[in-house]
Amino acid sequence: NLRLSGKEIPNIDGISNDLMRIIKKSCSYNMNERYNNPSEMKKDLYTLKPNDRWGEAYEKLEAILAGETK
């Protein structure tokens, strides 16, 4: 598991830099770097462009966190 090992989650092709920033912050190994509460994350998610909010991001991230891809 990447997050539990302390390794940074790699960027995922097709996912915007802004969405990757949110994903990395929410999954950070260091708890002091994560969101303090759901409202903070929600605020960042709502700043994304509509095209960046959905798509294949969830499936790709899930596979990476499960260690199924590099």
Quick recap of the structure?
The protein has 70 residues and is an all-alpha fold. 51% of the residues lie in helices and 0% in strands.
Per-chain topology:
Blueprint: H1 2-5, H2 17-26, H3 38-46, H4 50-53, H5 57-65
Protein described:
By secondary structure, this protein is mainly α. Helices cover 51% and strands 0% of the residues. The radius of gyration is 12 Å and the shape is flat. The termini are close together.
Could you give the count of β-strands?
0
Q: Mean pLDDT, nearest integer?
A: 79
Tell me the series of helices and strands, N- to C-terminal: HHHHH
| Weakly predicted, low-confidence segments | none
Q: Approximately how much beta-strand content do the residues carry?
A: under 5%
**Estimated helix fraction:** 40-55%
**End-to-end Cα distance:** 11 Å
Largest sheet: none
Net shape: flat
Annotation field: number of helices: 5
Derived structural class:
mainly alpha
Rg on CA atoms, Å: 12 Å
List keywords for this structure.
single chain; 70 residues; mainly alpha; 51% helix
